Amino acid sequence: MVRKTKEEAEQTRKEIIHAARRVFHECGVSHSTLEKIAKAAGVTRGAVYWHFQDKAELFFAMREDVFAPMVERTDAYLLSERFENPLDAIEASITEFFRVLEDSAVVREVFEIMISRCEYVGEFTSVEEEIGRPAYDFLAKIERVYRQAADKGMLRPGIDPMDAARDTWAFTSGLLHLLLSCQRGSDLSQKVSAMISVHMAMRRIPSV
Amino acid sequence: MVRKTKEEAEQTRKEIIHAARRVFHECGVSHSTLEKIAKAAGVTRGAVYWHFQDKAELFFAMREDVFAPMVERTDAYLLSERFENPLDAIEASITEFFRVLEDSAVVREVFEIMISRCEYVGEFTSVEEEIGRPAYDFLAKIERVYRQAADKGMLRPGIDPMDAARDTWAFTSGLLHLLLSCQRGSDLSQKVSAMISVHMAMRRIPSV
DNA sequence: TTATTTACATACATTCATGAATGTTTATAA
DNA sequence: TTATAAACATTCATGAATGTATGTAAATAA
Fold first, then answer.
1. What pLDDT, on a 0 to 100 scale, did the predictor assign at position B185?
2. Which of A7 and B50 is assigned the larger pLDDT?
3. Average pLDDT, chain A
């Protein structure tokens, strides 16, 4: 049983990607041999080389499966018009991001691989840029939304929209890193939602 | 000339550590062979194996040289009594951290290695914990200082000290990561100081 | 002065991972 | 129906990288 139908081939391709994720997560990218990945997927290296040129291409495929949908989901909240207060859009967007991260083990594994199980040198320097771009995009987007909030008079007076955006930007990045790389039996994940609320509350109009 | 005096031996030990830092930074930890490091240090692998058991031990030695002094310096500000406003101590401490990071190429290289050029698996999982511990220590420390500020009536009303501490914690972590792993010709490093001021200003008593 | 370490360099054996080449079966197109 | 090519498995050659073992000259202790 060698020659498979197209659907079967596509299936083994996906299984190779899933196996790669598991092995990357366990061994780190550079200590993950294609042999290990193949074995984990129940195939041989021949199959891996058939579907992917090398480890880097496999890595990108794994990443793409998860990254793009994530940006799309969070943008949906961020750019939605259904919030009368733009600050609610920002809060909902960030909350959604961490909710997906909490709920989906696959997403969490991929982010953990990218953050603490991959060395960004050589052919992987581009990956760092690909991670950096969405980060800067995020900054630009929330800055626009903060500006809308300011225009509507819903941003606490004395706070500049750009300043607020940069602060939220760093906060979000830090929360992500602390969550994925410094988890020592801490209950941080339970506090994420509250931390986001507190963060946003500091730039809302005081209720009293 | 083979047998060296003790001081000379100590010197080559240091040169090996410096070479390791350069090679780690350029190639990533797992793609750094002891051969490369030895050549960069102007010695052979024999010398490296004489001074260090393996690559991991060399990595730890490199890290220790930079990490401990850094914590000491920032703690000096954080725990100093010479600030009448505890919020100034926090701001000075964080500012000092990023100032050292900006000024010292060695420190920056080591942090860059730890953040984006090392895979935290296998024998390096412990490194992740060693990075996580100072992070949690920092959280505990600034929470205490925020509490002092609240007791002195210098924390903006409505803000809980623990909440403020966690927000600052995430902010600092995020700023560090953004600074070291997403630098694409951006002028972020110039804005660090201002970002810290803005961040702290949001929890100070409004002047008006 | 001599014996013994020290502080390395050199050489070697072994393991691993890669990439390419080749083999093999079967779906599919003509 | 047959030729072709897809979807792999198997084998092989090669090149690191590691750890260890051994060689060696000078510093140092006795």
1. 64
2. B50
3. 93
Residues facing A125 on adjacent strands: none
**CB contact set of B87 (below 8 Å; sequence gap of 6+):** B145, B146, B149, B154, B155, B200, B203, B204
The answer to whether the beta carbons of residues B199 and A167 sit under 8 Å apart is: yes
Q: Which chain A residues touch B172 with a CB distance below 8 Å? A: 170, 174
Separation CA B25–CA B111 (nearest Å): 10
Nucleotides of C under 7 A from a protein CB: 5-11, 16-21, 23-28
Length of chain B, in residues: 208
| Separation of alpha carbons A177 and B179, rounded Å | 13
Residue A126's pLDDT is 81
Q: Name the nt closest to A30 by C-alpha to C1'.
A: C17
Question: pLDDT digits over A46-99, tens only?
Answer: 999 999 999 999 999 999 889 889 999 999 999 999 999 999 999 999 999 999
For chain B, the C-alpha Rg in angstroms (whole number) is: 20
Residues A139-183 have pLDDT tens digits of 999 999 999 999 999 999 999 999 999 999 999 999 999 999 877
β-pair partners for B163:
none
Interior CA angle at B23 toward B17 and B24, to 5°? Answer: 85
The answer to whether B125 CB sits below 7 Å from nucleic acid chain D is: no
Q: Is A54 exposed, middle or buried (CB count within 10 Å of its CB: 0-12, 13-18, 19+)?
A: exposed
Size of interface A-B (CB pairs under 8 A): 148
- Domains plus CATH for chain B? 1-52 (1.10.10.60), 65-201 (1.10.357.10)
Alpha carbons A125 and A132: distance in angstroms, whole number: 11
